[in-house]
Amino acid sequence: MSFWPVAGVDHEEAGEKWRAGDAAKSLRFFNRAIETYDAGLQQFPQSFDLAYNKARLQYEVSQQPRLLAHLSVPLIDLLQLALDSHRTALRIDQDNPDLLFNTAQVLTSLAETLNDSKSSPELDRNDTLRLLQEALELFQRCLNVQEFKLDEAQEPTAHDHSGNLQTDDPGSDRVSGNASDASEEEVWASVEESITKGTLLDTTLVQLNTLTTICTLGSTPNQNDLAWVEEYYRTTLLEKINAYSSSGTSQHEIAIAKAKFISAISDAAFRSRRLDAATYERELNAAFNDPNLDLNQDIQGLCDKADAYLTFQASIQSSLPRAQPCEIGQIDAVCWKHVTKALDSLTAASKIPDAQNLPRIHLKRGDCELMRFELGQKPLGYDLAVKSASTLVKNAEVYYRGAVALAKSNEAAKEEMREAEVKEAVAAAVGGDECRLQEMSKLRREAVEIVLGDMIDEGILSSESVRKIAKSLT
Description:
By secondary structure, this protein is mostly helical.
């Protein structure tokens, strides 16, 4: 029995060794590890360790961007395989907190991937919602088990039923093994990490993040969904978060999670017409003005803040068709202000040393400049955007060019490099120089069309602006 876990771990370690240098070779070792665990399960189908390791590794592979390009199956299919493997492991041990947590994470990743796909949006939304609701249930089950284990560990030392003194150290890691399919000599031991209040806080915050994801589903949120999401937050999570929080780092982490949730549920309420624009703006600004939220050195926090402002701008701009003529002047000023705030946050993030996602940050900065350019086009015609049009377009080119340069030296940023190359040519075409986009379209027409479609969907350029550019490509 012990051969299979040891052999699998050896393959995993080899995969880790090659992950930074040779992604294809790394993936081959990871696949061998999965095959090894699977072979072990054929002989020992009730081995929890083999089932757990197989499921865990399948999910870990799906979360490595450098490995995804070498997969032989689509990401959604791999996530579904990982979910099936986690369900198999749960049938062996349904109360293992790590397994419950991991299964909920797989469900969340599968839901997010499904939500990002563009086929059958309404069907996908229902499927996605079911996955996220199941994830919430599993996170809650995980939390219940963790709370029980923490209470058990904190109980004073007592005598067991045989009268012997129990000497387990509540703060130490515990070792467990599943011997149902093995002799006593072959038990494969697994280490269960000790549970702390920090562990409980982590589980509670991922539940909050799951509620945040639910708020982003669909273009028109279901009001019943929003009602139970808000009730779940107020009646179930807030008390837990307050109970498990402590000073220092956790306060910042809590403030970020709350800010993202408040901005997401406010946006959903606005899109479903339960909230007016002024209240939405107040809620958003208050969320990111939390005294516990110091983003000066938080790259991801600054990017999250920028995303929240850009989401606000997109939702406000989408309300134009139902706006009164006298309101248009207010809408364009509000949109300009919040895109500018997003740009300021991204600029601050780009200046923090050792930023790992600089190509993506520069891409977003370029997107912001084109969004501000679009505010000068009809029907808004915002005066400041009209006057600054040429500067905004040239700024976008500079940011996209910077993203290309940074991505060239980063093997993990090849996708960002290809996107930035197309967007730089698009920005040049918006400014009147269509030659680069024409040449690029001859070589990479499908890629150009995909990027242009995404720019319309994400509100970076209007369909009218893209239509003008597309005329030069025919």
